[in-house]
Every structure is written in C-alpha cells, then in structure tokens.
Amino acid sequence: MTLFHTHELRHPTARGLLAAWLELKDLKVGILPTIAEQLAPTSAGAIASEANLAANLLEHHRARGAMHAASQLAEESWWWKMWNDGSSPYVLIRPPRIYSDQAVQLLDEIDPRGFPGCRPDEVRRSADARMVCETIALEAWLCLRTEMTVIDHIEVNRWAVEAGHRGEHTTGLVLYDADVAMLNWTYKPHDIQRWAQAGLLACWPGDDGAPATDILRNTRRHIGAMALSGTLPAAGQRLLNCLDTHPDPIGLVEETRTRLPSPTVEAERRHPGRHAGPPAPPLPPEAQDPRSRRTQERETAGDGNAEED
Fold it and tell me: CA 266, CA 259: separation in Å to the nearest integer?
C-alpha cells in the first residue's frame, strides 16, 4: 500500500492529482491515523463517536458570530465526510489492535537520528515518527517531500532495513520522495496517458460539459501553479510536458469526460475552499479632520519664533 504525507494532502491540486491517479487504478487514497489527526484534529478525535464535531462547532461559531476559525472547521468537517462516505476517493485506515500495538512498540525502537528536528527524548511524541511507525506496521510505503531538516529519510530507511522491517514480505524502502516516485510511475505509454488524465480530473471545472480547450487551459494553469509552489515540481512539469506533447489533447479530454461522474471531481467540488469567495477588499483609511484655522493660529502663537508686537 502506498501512502502520502500530510503536505501532499493539504495542497488542493496535489491532493486531487493523487486521488485521481489512484481512482484510475480503482484504488483510494489511504489516510494514516496520525495524518488524519494533522489534517483534521477535531474530526479525527471524534471518529469513534460517529459525530461530525467540526461541523457542530462550525454551526456554534456561526450562531455566535465568531468566525475566526470557520475555514479550518469547514475543512475538518469536509475530511470527516470524506472518511465516512464510501463513495469518496479517501479512506481512513483503521488498523487492527495488533498493528496499533506494533506501531507503539516501534516508537520505542526507532533511531532518533532519523528526526533531526526533534530531541531524542521527544521522538516518541513526534507525529512524523508515529506516521513512520504506522507505515512500517502496515507493511506500506510512505511518499513525502524529503525535507531533510524534519525527517532524514536516508537514516529512517537505513534503520528500517537494518532492524529487519524491510525484507522478504515487504520489499523496497519505507520512505520515498513523492516527486521522484510519481515520475517513476510515468515511464510507460499507458502510464503517461493515465497521468495526464489524472491531471485533467484533478483540475476539472465545475461544469462537466465545459469546452475541451477550457479544461486544458484550466489544467495547465493549476498544475503550473502547483509546480511553482514547490509541491511535486518535477512531477507537475512532467504532466505539463505530457499534455503539450500529446498527439490528441482534445481527444484525451473527451475520453476523460466519459469517466464522469468521478469520485475525485465530486469530492473536490464539495471542498469548502472551492466555494470560498474573493478576499475582502482592504478597508479605506479613516477620514482625518483637517486642523481648524484657530488651532493653527494657536500653534503659531505658541511658536517661539513668532514675532512679538
């Protein structure tokens, strides 16, 4: 099982791209428990109660007019709905007790050198260390942005191999660079086709019947912005190259259109960020009353440089 780090799932275009890529393979994006806590701490903590606490808190804030946390609560509520909707492209991983216990045990064993941004005695409480241990317990692979100041993926992979957590039943590494991994998935012609279609679905507009040229333009704009932001830069550019060199991009759009309704497209349309209005314009400066003539005269009279009669 291939899993993805919080960073990739928070970026809207990257999230849709990953979901669409797996959707085209009849798979879903698996969410680790620790990643669920990072994406939606309120909702994740209420999963067992089957109550959308984020939505309830959002209504409470609206009733009181306290909307400073509205956007965060709305997104948490969206994640809760995704985890509880069998038709969504996301699935919350609820590992059996034996795997949870193994992940806790691994936290006591993991080499702290894999987490240079954390004190050795605090690694056990590190969210990054927990998601690594959960990945190992599930015999899965975690794709992430290889930010070496937070997680030294080389040290983590070395420890996992030396400790026997990668062997006959689980080949490969524990951690992979998400950008490089996605590039490696697009070597064969049918994979290139799937990658380009995933990009189209990730950026599909609100109108299913939008002209193909508009869909291509919208996809290039969003994927280009994602790459420039530093999220999946090489994989994003690879997708743009695939679209630019495709022999029939209009036909590709029309073929992709036949896959609608798409779980990824429908999920992203429900995301609160999709419906956010434009930012409020800045307030004009407050009007300043001009100083009266009398005030000016008093200031002049009090000036030591004024001439005396």
Answer: 12
Look at the block and give the residue holding tokens 């954390």. 118
Q: What values do phi and psi take at 8, rounded to 5? A: -70, -30
Single-letter code of the amino acid located at 24? L
The span from the CA of 202 to the CA of 219, in Å, is 8
Alpha-carbon separation of residue 168 from 115, 160, 241 (angstroms) = 26, 13, 37
Q: For every one of its 309 residues, what pLDDT tens digit does the chain have, with 9 covering 90 and above?
A: 889 999 999 999 999 999 999 999 999 999 999 999 899 887 666 555 555 545 555 565 554 555 556 677 888 889 988 988 999 999 999 888 898 899 999 999 999 999 998 999 999 889 999 999 999 999 999 999 887 888 999 999 999 999 988 766 566 899 999 999 999 989 999 999 999 999 999 999 999 999 999 999 999 999 999 999 999 999 999 999 999 999 999 999 999 999 999 999 999 999 998 754 444 444 444 555 555 554 455 544 555 544 444
Contact 22, 185 (CB under 8 A): no
Residue 249's contacts (CB-CB under 8 Å, 6 or more residues apart) are 212, 216, 243
User: Using an 8 Å Cβ cutoff, are 81 and 52 in contact?
Assistant: yes
Specify the long-range contacts of residues 265-269, CB closer than 8 Å, at least 24 apart. 265/201, 265/204, 266/87, 267/19, 267/82, 267/88, 267/89, 267/90, 268/12, 268/15, 268/16, 268/202, 269/206
Residue 3 parent element (H or E)? strand 2-4
| DSSP 8-state code for residue 165 | S
Whole-number Å distance between alpha carbons of 69 and 56: 13
